[in-house]
């Protein structure tokens, strides 16, 4: 015996948006109607599915189990329906910070297309948050704060570490962090990133570091590939070059850059909420696999 479809729809929207009122807005019904449908589903299942805490809504263990199945069914049903109706693919507009867009996200978009052939993506990038109008995008990836109207979640805990070319690595004579300070240091933060790195490594910073200034961490990473100096980078930026042997990662000297944690910002009440949810699920599989 299957639960009532309307009750499942109300439950899925409430669980996804974590709000009865937002679910009501998206389904064009009243909040009391949503609450009634969810209660009907809970009575059908015989146990609570949602925890109602003031204005927030959280899933119970049973609710989480049901939601994972319902969400997948709705995603598949939507995909098949679009295909049968011969509708043009939904296009997700994504803005990514240059550091994560160039080396990490852009090369992976074909994998997303293979997984969801009925969805298209339009990837744009910016080096600074104020260079783009957030309202034009469904999702934003970067180290920037959340724009108004967006929900945020951290992609993962990101560690920054020195990188250099193999030729530079061969010049190191020991395994001490202090030896790096004898060479040019490329900074995208007017030297503050390296000052914090020295503090984390419990090093007394020399009066005059050999700093080389660039505007982006991606540029600093590219600059050291010529064979001289060190840059502070991370797996989103340097990962492909490290894997290819073009750069050496000194992970033993890693640290967490306070402003270097990547966030995913998205509109939870987007008219393309199902497609956004699909992209988020896919994105996290990519993030966890590095």
From TrEMBL:
Keywords: DNA-binding, Transcription, Transcription regulation. Residues 3-60 form the HTH lysR-type domain. It comes from the Bacteria. The keyword Transport does not apply. It holds the Pfam family LysR_substrate. GO terms for molecular function: DNA binding. Belongs to the LysR transcriptional regulatory family. This is DNA-binding transcriptional LysR family regulator. It comes from Rheinheimera soli.
